[in-house]
Amino acid sequence: MPGTNLTREEARQRAALLTVDAYEVELDLSGAQEGGTYRSVTTVRFDSAEAGAETFIDLVAPAVHEAVLNGRALDVAAVFRDSRIALPHLREGRNELKVVADCAYTNTGEGLHRFVDPVDDQAYLYTQFEVPDARRVFASFEQPDLKATFRFTVKAPAGWKVISNSPTPEPKDDVWAFEPTPRISTYITALIAGPYHSVHSTYEKGGQTVPLGIYCRPSLAEFLDADHIFDVTRQGFDWFQEKFAYDYPFAKYDQLFVPEFNAGAMENAGAVTIRDQYVFRSKVTDAAYERRAETILHELAHMWFGDLVTMEWWNDLWLNESFATYTSVACQAAVPGTRWPNAWTTFANAEKTWAYRQDQLPSTHPIMADINDLEDVLVNFDGITYAKGASVLKQLVAYVGQDEFFKGVQAYFKAHAFGNTRLSDLLGALEKTSGRDLTAWSKAWLETAGINVLRPEIETDADGTVTAFAVRQEAPALPAGAKGEPSCARTGSRSASTTWTRPVASCAPTAWSWTSRRTGGPRCRSSSARSARRSSSSTTTTCRTPRSVSTTCPWPTSPRTWATSPSRCRARCAGPRPGT
Q1: How far apart are CA 193 and CA 261, in angstroms?
Q2: Would you state the pLDDT for residue 2?
């Protein structure tokens, strides 16, 4: 029995068999004020590559009343188990399925969450579907690479507002009939309903007009600083559309501050939900405003990276989140008129230190984690996926060049709009624009885990003058229980102008050192040519042939000599210091 899990192999097999065209979802929320369950009717049209094949659709519901496949009623008792409805004897080509079920309101932030405001005793609803919880509201093929269009029709109590991915229509007899969405994944569909307070504006530039909305409960309306939120949002639109060279891909952009949210925010296409703690009830620090702005920009960045172009499977969850984290901070730091030009300092003090801590725990893992099933996904929303991944992307931008990086991203969006991709698709686009082979870089930084240990070694003469300095680094064993291989590729320097990269294939300790020239000691250099000094193919660091020196040590015990080894090149006295 599968329970509520789904394996990567099952998803791969289902994606090979099916092409999903469209969903029509009808929800009766007229009894939401009382809670309990609600009627959900799903009609989904899809193609099968094989006649007579069998597959399944996902649904988590207290009761299924009807399942009709291609006009033939299925025995619900026989086909509905755990979180799945079996679909036997598919036609080759077009199939149509209708499922009628009772689904449940939740208070866990999964599926359709229901909250009653103690101020006005009104119910407020919102969906949260990432990772696999659209199936708690309607029957769906719950995996990111089976995209489709979605048409929602919702019956709601009188006086309510209903918001979804498509622009909000005028209700007729308290029924809200939305237009179909573009092709998107199930986990970024959304529905928000209740007597919400709203403020509206637009983003306008170069003939483009995007309706903007901000929503919260009426009990928070007096605290809602909508103008400030709109300002940050417009800055994000300006910066992202310029950098991505792709217009905002949806028909409107709503931001909804919702209660009891179990995360920071969620990038539902055109209908972003955000924890309503970001509606500040009193004076807060500038750091709190900076954090809220980063969250706003993070979710806006997802409209392109994650929603327009979506990962094929959850292995690349890090790429969604790392990209949104990197670009949100880059926008904060660089967009004209920014209030936080030092956003990268905040990133270093907050996100990057979070990543360092996370990377030393038994729960660490490679940035590109091996996701075998849905349960694996849920434990990877962490400092590795968000903060370490964003740090590595920042390094990648420096490595390939910012202009080349964004040119690659632009080509990536154009090639894969409303489709699904793997990491190799993005790296391939970046390789074309930068001219760099990123295979070794990806292996070293994305597919390893853990941090390196750096230790300084300093030597001084009798006067206290530094005569030699080395930074030794090594990749220690990963904490017990951690997944992946230890990370070996790191950089170190012997001077402000010289950087060497350790070989990817070796984790042996190494050192970079500097020796005072006034002592006449040997100088250390890379064995590779200057033009290849940063290449991962560099495997050794050697010294020039040491010279015999017969000067006297600061202490009269022995002649001074130079000692070298393949991994370290620095001067030292052969004799012991007095008292040792």
Answers
A1: 15
A2: 64
Which stretch of 146-150, 204-208, 375-379, 544-548 has the lowest confidence by average pLDDT? 544-548
**Distance, C-alpha 5 to centroid of its chain:** 22
For residues 511 and 474, what is the distance between their CA atoms, to the nearest angstrom? 9
Which token pair is 41? 């009717």
Distance CA 538, CA 471 (A): 18
3-state secondary structure of 276: helix
128's CB contacts (< 8 A; 6+ apart) are 109, 110, 111, 113, 261, 262, 263, 266, 273
Gap between the Cα atoms of 30 and 430, Å rounded: 50
- Look up the pTM and report it: 0.83
The DSSP-derived string for 297-328 is: HHHHHHTTBTTTBEESSGGGHHHHHHHHHHHH
Report how far residue 116's alpha carbon sits from residue 204's, in angstroms, rounded to the nearest whole number. Answer: 36
501 confidence band (pLDDT: 50, 70, 90): very low
Angle at 407 between CA 406 and CA 410, to 5 degrees: 85
User: Is residue 253 within 8 Å of 267, Cβ to Cβ?
Assistant: no
How many Cα atoms within 13 Å fall on the side-chain side of residue 335?
26
Which pair of structure tokens corresponds to residue 392? 């590595």
Would you state the pLDDT for residue 454? 86
Mean confidence (pLDDT) of the chain? 86
In tens, the pLDDT along 11-29 reads 999 999 999 999 999 999 9
Integer angstrom CA distances of residue 355 from 396, 411, 538:
17, 30, 28
Known catalytic residues are: 299
